[in-house]
Design a protein that fits this description.
Chains A, B: NADPH binds at residue 107. The structure is a homodimer. Chain A is globular. Chain A folds into 2 domains: 2-135 and 301-314, NAD(P)-binding Rossmann-like Domain (Rossmann fold, 3-Layer(aba) Sandwich), CATH 3.40.50; 141-297, Dihydrodipicolinate Reductase, domain 2. The longest helix of chain A has 15 residues, at 201-215. Chain A is built from 13 helices and 12 strands. The first copy, chain A, is of the alpha/beta class. Strand 12 (290-297) of chain A pairs antiparallel with strand 12 of chain B.
């Protein structure tokens, strides 16, 4: 397939770099400032080097022209935005209008405007896939799709690696939140402004997307429907107390009974949910097959790219 | 899709019972002794009741006619056989000759005659899928398929629930093998003749199938290529000794570096591989996304049926 990659940060760059290994050709790449377009295939390494040289000067083309180029799949990897989910939603809209496929890592459109996305997809010859929006490399959405969303009665898990790293480190090292946050920032596991992760918003968006997928159009959810509590107020003493009782604390997101909740929760210390470091886990409760546990790396350039390329592989030819 | 279900034991019956929920019609059912065929759709409950009434008298039709009936997908759920993998292989061969799809739970053809199956599939308009042959309800093969077999560098796991139940119970209760085997047989977790499970053969067949999938035709494996050791000689003292060191013992199957090994192995007692009871787990090591852990119910009628119906859902129309 020919890929137009819009958003050339960590994830978009990784997709561009791995595309050839999967037999695909990158025919357009665009960031906010510039684009490079070549129907015969872009020299990805050269383009990324130009971008790296401080000016984000990916190429000589206009970013808007990238959406009009020759491609089969729009790879939408621009940063998540809430509310109107722009410009990501607009990118998706244009590609579908042109009857192209869309594969997203950007959670915005799928969490905040799910119904509209599905309507646009219905009217298009192109399809929309978004495995990378939930759980990074973990095959959550394809598993739900294959087993049938109607057979999944609940989904829960650890969906944010930053928050989980902090909590599991607080627990294992007996250190306080601020100290461990600083460690996480030094390691590049937490952002300079970590609020999106530690307040639970990132995990909540993923749960909203899960809820939308499981509802199959019967009901539409947005971030406003989630009850969200973050990890900033957990004292180290709470973790010690939990441990005395054979438990620990993790930031758990759950979709069940039409409700979406994200918050710190006590879990048995060796439970599947007590993953450590930046590992993510999703537990699916199924009607006929009990519980499925899927865990792995929930974030990272190559990791997320893997999920996007798996999605590309499941698209039918146009 | 219209399903012809050959083999109406635990798994085949479950597929028949659940087919309607997934929008499919059962147009043929056959066991060794009899068959029932109806292009308009079989009354599954009535057929299973007749079978249940001690004479396995599923219907008035000849089992061989089931393969010639009107159906899109042959659901092959007859008991596993080694070597020539008959009659399962013959059922698959006939369906593919007639340009129908085949979905298997029967490990025999995929472990012992993988290359021949792939050749037949290539010459047929029908496709062959076999998720249910490895890890029951756990989406192992579809995950490998979506992520690309060439990107999976190793696969390992606990692939037999009977052996795992016995070992985890020996460890947790401090009981010996014979005692726990008897418990397992009372619970229906182990067969009267448990050798297929406790000698590691079942786990080995699953690993052989994994090895065939990962090799993508570069090399073909059969059960003879697996180095297999079972659990019958593990004294309870070995588990105590392991526990003093923070470890336990599990029957682990691994496919890596072109080799297939099944045998008891020491694992850290809270490692992901230290699943308890009849739970199965498969760990995939990937090139770009680190380790994926997939765990859940590895056996059971409805569980395995779920995997077969997920396979049916991924088949293209004929």
């Amino acid at each position: 397939m020919r890929l137009a990659i819009v958003g050339t940060g960590t994830v978009g760059s990784s997709v561009a770099q791995l595309a050839g290994d999967y037999g695909h050709t990158v025919t357009a790449m665009a960031n906010v400032e510039a684009a490079t377009i070549d129907s015969g295939g872009i020299d990805v390494e050269a383009a990324l080097e130009r971008q790296h040289e401080g000016e984000r000067h990916l190429g000589e083309d206009d970013p808007e022209d990238a959406l009009e180029a020759d491609y089969d799949v729009l790879v939408e990897a621009t940063p998540v935005t809430l509310g109107d989910a722009q410009p990501g939603f607009g990118h998706l809209e244009r590609a579908l209008q042109l009857d192209r496929h869309v594969v997203l890592a950007n959670k915005g459109p799928m969490a905040e405007r799910y119904g509209e996305v599905m309507d646009l997809a219905e009217q298009s010859a192109g399809e929309v896939r978004f495995e990378a929006t939930v759980g990074g490399a973990i095959p959550v959405l394809s598993t739900i799709e294959d087993y049938g969303p109607e057979t999944i009665t609940a989904a829960r898990g650890v969906l944010n690696g930053t928050a989980n790293f902090i909590l599991s480190r607080m627990a294992s090292a007996g250190l306080g939140y601020e100290h461990v946050l600083a460690e996480a920032q030094d390691l590049g596991v937490a952002e300079t402004d970590p609020s999106f992760d530690v307040e639970g918003t990132d995990a909540a968006l993923k749960c909203v997307i899960l809820a939308n997928v499981l509802a199959e159009g019967d009901r539409e959810y947005t971030l406003e429907d989630a009850a969200v509590e973050g990890i900033k107020d957990i004292p180290e003493s709470a973790l010690e107390l939990a441990q005395e009782d054979g438990r620990t604390i993790r930031l758990i997101g759950e979709v069940a009974g039409g409700e979406i909740r994200v918050g710190p929760r006590l879990v048995p210390e060796h439970s599947e949910l007590a993953v450590t470091g930046t590992t993510n886990i999703v537990q699916l409760e199924t009607e006929n097959a009990g519980r499925l546990n899927l865990s792995g790396r929930g974030a990272g350039g190559p990791e997320t790219a893997t999920a996007m390329l798996a999605d590309v592989g499941r698209l039918p030819p146009l």
